[in-house]
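FAQ: What does the model actually see?

It sees only this:
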Amino acid sequence: MNRLENQVTLVTGAGSGMGQVVAAMFAREGAKVVALDTKADGLQETEALISAAGGEVLSMACDVTDESAVRDAVQASIKRFGKLTVLYNNAGIMPEADHSVIDTEPDVWDKVQEVNLKGVYLVCKHGIPALIDAGGGSVINIASFVAIVGCTVPQDSYTASKGAVLALTKSLSAQFGPKGVRSNAICPGPIETPLLMEWLLTDPAAKALRLARIPMGRFGKSEDIGHLAIYLASPESSWMTGAELNIDGGITSFYF
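And it is asked to produce this:
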């Protein structure tokens, strides 16, 4: 039996990178997938990956900062599949203009908070009642290792947003655990997404510096996160809630 049999998983940011990979992994484990993104071409790729694996998918263009769009996506999920049991809050941005608090412009700060934090809030606002109606489920929020440790190359709005996601996850676990909804946060280290690799390939010194701080000696892969996400989405994690799970190659345990 597949590990996610009978699960209906809503994945934000499913049109590229880690979200796309994890959405396909969910499907391969038997889940029905609702793929949300602002990128129509990316969603087509995700649909093709899932369909090729014999999975069922509903893809919708959705801006997670738009409450009506999020509400519509949740309602469409239930109409198509009859229920919703997993929220995978992956959508996020990390713009180059996000630096230290002393040199980041307010519009940049606000945009990062809108996507990375408000987006999680809106998906949970409309998705958690659906999980409760289904008899319980799993909220999986993607935070970051930078929510736990400081960074000498700051991205302060991104860091602050991910710290807030951790705090929100704890609150959700306390509120909705009694209703059968478990809420956990994954804190990835640097992952080989197109966004990160494009930047590091143009800056070998930055790449070498970051690799030197990873005891495992490599960047993470989207599949590394996906394996943990499958566990959290499955009944195997039925007694886990309120956890912050580092999957970072050892960065947060390494001092030199």
